[in-house]
Amino acid sequence: MGASLKILIIEDNQTICRQLGEFLAGHQWQIDFAHNASLGIQLALEYIYDVILLDLNLPDRDGLAVCEEIKSNAEITPPILMVTARDSFEDKAVGFRSGADDYLTKPFDLRELALRCEALARRHSLHKSKTLALGELTLDTRAKTAMHKGVLLDLTSIGFRILELLVNCYPEPASRAYIAHQLWGDAPPESDALKSHIYVLRKSLDQSFGKPMIKTVMNVGYKLEQPCHVD
């Protein structure tokens, strides 16, 4: 299980909204809806989304103009996936030139839509700040170091990577399979190496924070217990 995505759907067709929302929510993603351009722009500029699904045929404004406004004014520019019946090459060219990061024509397979959302969110994360913050915990993903209240934590390289994964997934848990795959790909160690690395990481965090920071989620994996929001 990876990080839970936050998706904004800007679409005036209630039936399509319901279909998209129900399917994507089944991935444990958080879904917001806007049934017109004005509300869509307001939400996009007020909140941070991993991906925005944007229909082009909106009742109050063309989706191309909505895309341009969001891209021009959002503090953290979100990936925009245009979802539309406009299927000519010229339509797609105009869409991309308006700022779209991807373009999907109706009708489409909902499974493909989910894969595109995941790919866009993953690509977008590569361009985010190299500093992660969770309350008084900060991670420098370039230097591979972590600090608590400005004090450097004593972490192994694998311990840092696990902590980074947990911070990125917060407040959701990261599954054991997901962590193992991120660490070792398709060739994980035969022994229960992950459990050992979690144990060492726990000791370092608990010593610094003075309380347990990593919670075991039964039959799932691990999550950070941090009573604050990600900055």
Short description:
With 231 residues, the chain is an alpha/beta fold.
How would you describe the overall organization of this protein?
By secondary structure, the protein is α/β, with parallel strands linked by helices. It folds into two domains: 120 residues, Response regulator (Rossmann fold); 94 residues, Arc Repressor Mutant, subunit A (Orthogonal Bundle). It contains eight helices and twelve strands. The strands form three sheets. A five-stranded parallel beta sheet has the order 2-1-3-4-5, with helices on both faces. Strand 6 and strand 7 form a beta hairpin. Helix 2 runs parallel beside helix 3 and helix 6 packs across helix 8. The longest helix is centred in the last third of the chain and has 17 residues. The chain is elongated. The relative contact order is 0.11. The C terminus is likely disordered.
